[in-house]
Amino acid sequence: EDKVVQSPLSLVVHEGDTVTLNCSYEVTNFRSLLWYKQEKKAPTFLFMLTSSGIEKKSGRLSSILDKKELFSILNITATQTGDSAVYLCAVGRVQGAQKLVFGQGTRLTINP
Amino acid sequence: DVKVTQSSRYLVKRTGEKVFLECVQDMDHENMFWYRQDPGLGLRLIYFSYDVKMKEKGDIPEGYSVSREKKERFSLILESASTNQTSMYLCASLGTANSPLHFGNGTRLTVT
Fold it and tell me: With left for phi above 0 and alpha for psi between -120 and 50, is residue B61 left, alpha or beta?
């Protein structure tokens, strides 16, 4: 059965800290891995990763994929209170590419 | 920008009621999805539709049905609501397999 596991499930840090969120997967016919940020409402798209070892970056956020070890990390540097959210990892498959498999999410809380 | 609109933000229904959750997207996307989101379980796919009048079961279709009479609109129906269907329901749409899902703001349904 296809599975996506995120860790930690919950994380509380102080403003200015750097955090690393993890996502591991066991999915047949892997196509892509996506990260979303969910505050109080709609998850918003952060990154889509398809190739191993290529870092994607957006401001203080970055992510990388390791297709050999079947995981991805999402890094946030110099965290701010606005980074507090649930971060979702999802994996798309080659067949049935539309049907993403989601992890449980990591709830990140940034304290001032 | 893609807009996915869910008709209700909060709903309270009684056990046994028939419940309709409506979702509209404005980007002419072929694919639309209904997920439910529960703490510790992440997002789970209920149903998706890849074209008008076409639908496919997701991972947890029991107790739900869907309707897609027009391309822009995808409805989730709870034929006889039960308390275990209390959840956050998220609608999403997708243009191509290489693009990310776009989510609505969610409907928090409480069944009493």
Answer: alpha
Q: Helix, strand, or coil here: A68?
A: coil
Q: What are the chain B neighbours of A6 within 8 Å (beta carbons)?
A: 42
DSSP, residue by residue, B50-88: EETTEEEE-S--TTEEEEEEETTEEEEEESS--GGG-EE
DSSP β-ladder status, B19-25 and A44-49: unpaired
Whether residue B10 lies within 8 A of chain A, CB to CB, comes out as no
Quick one: which of A79, A75, A102, A83 has its CA closest to A39?
A: A83
pLDDT in tens, A41-64: 889 999 999 999 999 999 999 999
Query: Is the Cβ pair B100, A45 closer than 8 Å?
Result: yes
Comparison of pLDDT for A69 and A96, the residue scoring more: A69
Question: Is B88 part of the contact surface with chain A (CB cutoff 8 Å)?
Answer: no
Tokens found for residue B61: 């279709």
